[in-house]
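Re: the 199-residue chain
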Amino acid sequence: MNSAGASPMDFNRIVNGVIRTIKLDRAFFREIKDDPSYTRDAWTVVIVVSVIAALGTLLGSLFSGHFLAAIVLFLWTAIWGVVGFYVWVFLTHWLGTSFFKGEGTIDQTQRCLGFAWGPRILGVLAIIPCLGWIAALAGAVLSIIAGYFAVQESLNQDSTNALLTVIISAVIVFIVGAIVTGILGAIGLAGAAASGAFR
């Protein structure tokens, strides 16, 4: 079928796409750039990865004994995983086309960056005490590296412009996410302390 909305979802294709992304297969991004059938697949990757990473955060936080903080961070991690991705897409496309000689549609950028979001699934390893954050960080870094190839292909940029586009947009998204996560974490911990005072 030509309609992506009418055809059944092919999870094998999605998993294969994530694997090729983790392998930093530049040709994969070239293939999906102009294939609208991958739009839904890309969003599926983003949503699934965000929820799984949030579960890792939840379980890791529960081990610290702060239930309320764990719930707050779980919800935020899942929501920001999706919202943060869209912010990354918007910023990347805007910066790339406005300042770094990029040419392409936001749909092409979204498809390619959606799969580049895949390596963040390592965030589920946040459950491992003391070491989990390293795996989550590795996933984020790998995602940015994949994002470099995704942007280079989707926006037809040279290496320098693609690198600048990805780094600047990723830094902005990271800063915003870190600030809000810190605030919500503090609120959750404060709530946990307050509830404990009334036991």
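The radius of gyration is 18 Å.
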